[in-house]
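User: For this week's homework, look closely at the record that follows, marking any run of repeated tokens, and judge whether sequence predicts the tokens.
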Amino acid sequence: MAKQVGVSEATVSRVLNGKPGVSETTRVAVLTALDVLGYERPTQLRGERARLVGLVLPELQNPIFPAFAEVVGGALAQRGFTSVLCTRTVGGFSEADYVDLLLQQQVSGVVFAGGLYAQSDASHAHYERLRERRLPTVLVNAAAGHLGFPQVSCDDGVAAEMAFGHLDSLGHRRLGMVLGPPGHVPSRRKQEVFTAVAGRDGHELLTEHTMFSLEGGHAAAAGLVRAGVTGIVCASDVLALGAIRAVRRAGMTVPGDVSVIGYDDSALMNCTDPPLTTVRQPIDALGRAAVDLLAAQIDKTAVRSGELLFEPELVVRASTGPARGSGR
């Protein structure tokens, strides 16, 4: 371990035995290396929190999550913390398993993005454990006020209004939505606002729920295309790419026959065919706000447990166009 930290074995020994004559910077570096490498701290040091922060993500296939991890990891490093990336896998570690592991490692805090708190019908018991331990925690995207943690979110209602306004301006009257599972809170928020504005203006609206994947987007959008929608709004860019594939498999074109809007503006969406119109999440602002809220908790500063909402941005590209027969 001395080699990894760049100090002598004697220095490591002094830190582990609580001896004087070691700078605070070196002491923190040795303890952090101990935690990262999976060694157990000596008994007299276990009461100290490691300079580690857990970053728990649902997946890395959607480019938005690696982008978020990069922002959060960089912001944590600027404050002297090391992020520990935890990604759920099918048949592998669950979110609850990662919480147990992070607690064992004496982490200073945890940031969750796209976690099970976003599913109203999922178990939230592992969040309750964090609350009982008073471990600094921040949730990103999805209101979960009953947990009492600070939250940062992109405003789903504004995102829905932006998507609707764009399609409405292009003459689309029969619209479809491809959303996450029925219990997914951000999807429900989008649906509620979109349904309200569409109903107010007399538009027809069809909705499909599915899993967040390319295949899920394809299957859900295929039904909407058969039902004759001319514009589809999706709850993620990955779902939108599946929707575009469904339109083409039906022998139609995007945007000539059906316009498609995504959500996130994840990497390379300007390079797809056609380049994807999408509602951009302010990932940099969200990530830095999450780290600020976490650091404040670690420093024992009072932090409101409410939700900070950040404005999205409509990015218009080539996957949307005038509705057929609209004359626009």
Q: What stands out?
A: The mean pLDDT is 90. Residues 185-200 form the longest helix (16 residues).
